[in-house]
Write a structure and sequence with these properties.
heterodimer; A: mainly alpha; two-stranded antiparallel ribbon; 2 strands; globular; B: mainly alpha; about 0% strand
Chain lengths: ~240, ~150
């Protein structure tokens, strides 16, 4: 392991190491799926517990779920607009919740206690495959939203104020998923690395504020990703006059 | 050392793309559908039902408040009317009693005057009678005196 130029005496920092699972001709990163399944399981358990017995006067977990639902609805409604936000709210909400539990799960759960033959468990969003998958889903959904709402008139968007915008708008279709995926990936990976390096260098006290900062960044990144996804969809379904 | 070049990694590396990507995409899409049926739909239904309930309750309450205000104004008007009526009745009664008092007083005064007048007239006539009688007796006596004086001579 030679990502960092010198060898740490306390532990080993593993970057770019993966636990490979072979499925037919394909290889997948096992550690990403293990953590994501655990976190999705936790999320679904929370949802199932909270929606088991819903009442008009909310109690306990139902309160939390309703707060989340309200938050996601406001996010979707402000970005996508009153007309079609209902169709896209589950997608935006799933992005937000999945990224949020992935980020926080990666930061809060002491995965290091579980030894893997190769690689290490961590936030699923610290793997470029996950973030690119999410970003491509966003690209597909805003194309789908635009085409299903406006048909071929969607492409008016590319020449909207003037045809001069055409190349920029085409470039945007590539930079949108690129920036979405790399922003999330970079932030989460950097956060994990900073915490790991600090823990190696100064194992006491000093990493704690950085960990809190990491939690803050994680939440903000989930919000940014969901907000941008909603904004792109809103941009695609917006009517120009 | 894992190579860090985009798509360049043959084994490991930060930018190691493989079947994780499509599988994760499928997983997220499946999660979207699961969360839609487990979370977004049921919670949305409950929240919207509550919003409807709150809205209708508020509208009803507003209607009731308007009704109450209307009734209050009506009652106040009625109360005012009743008060005015009562005042009128009191005033009328006072006037009536005053009138009655005045009438009774006038009647009594006039009766008293009449009886006084009658008494005076009676006294006058009796005095006149007495005077006449006295006068006639005096005349008789005078005549008698004159006769006797004349007879002595």
């Amino acid at each position: 392991m030679g990502f960092l130029p010198f060898v740490f005496p306390l532990a080993e920092l593993e970057v770019g190491q993966h636990l490979y699972w072979q499925i037919g001709n394909f290889r997948i990163h096992g550690q990403v799926f293990m953590t994501s399944w655990l976190l999705i399981g936790a999320l679904l358990a929370l949802v199932v517990i909270g929606t088991k017995k819903m009442e008009r006067d909310p109690k306990g977990v139902q309160n939390l779920l309703e707060f989340l639902w309200d938050y996601i609805r406001d996010l979707a409604r402000t970005q996508i607009g009153e007309k079609v936000y209902r169709d896209w709210m589950p997608f935006i909400g799933t992005l937000f919740l999945f990224i949020f539990v992935s980020n926080w799960g990666g930061a809060l759960v002491p995965w290091k206690l579980i030894e893997l033959p190769s690689g290490e468990l961590g936030a699923p969003t610290a793997d470029i495959n996950t973030t690119v998958a999410l970003a491509l889903l966003v690209s597909l959904s805003y194309f789908y939203a635009g085409l299903s709402n406006k048909g071929l008139r969607y492409f008016e968007y590319y020449v909207h104020p003037t045809p001069i915008m055409l190349p920029f708008k085409i470039v945007e279709d590539f930079t949108k998923p690129l920036s979405l995926s790399f922003r999330l990936f970079g932030n989460i990976l950097a956060d994990e690395l900073v915490v790991a390096v600090l823990v190696f260098l100064v194992p006491l006290v000093l990493p704690v504020p950085v960990m809190f900062l990491g939690l803050f960044t994680s939440a903000i990144q989930a919000l940014i990703f969901a907000t941008l996804a909603a904004y792109y969809i809103g941009e695609a379904v917006e009517e120009h006059h | 050392m894992p190579t860090l070049f985009l798509f360049g990694a043959s084994e490991g590396g930060l930018f190691d793309f493989d079947a994780t990507l499509p599988l994760m995409a499928v997983q997220v899409v499946v999660l979207t559908f699961i969360l839609n049926s487990l979370f977004f739909k049921p919670v949305g239904r409950v929240v919207e039902e509550r919003e409807d309930y709150v809205n209708t309750s508020r509208a009803e309450a507003k209607k009731k408040i308007a009704e109450v205000e209307r009734l209050e104004i009506e009652l106040k008007d009625q109360l005012k009317e009743a008060r005015l009526e009562a005042q009128k009745v009191i005033l009328e009664a006072e006037q009536d009693s005053e009138n009655l008092y005045k009438e009774a007083l006038a009647l009594a005064t006039s009766e008293a005057n009449a009886s006084r007048e009658k008494a005076r007239r009676e006294i006058d006539s009796q005095r006149d009678e007495a005077l006449n009688q006295l006068k006639s007796e005096a005349d008789n006596l005078g005549d008698l005196i004159v006769e006797r004086l004349l007879a002595k001579k």
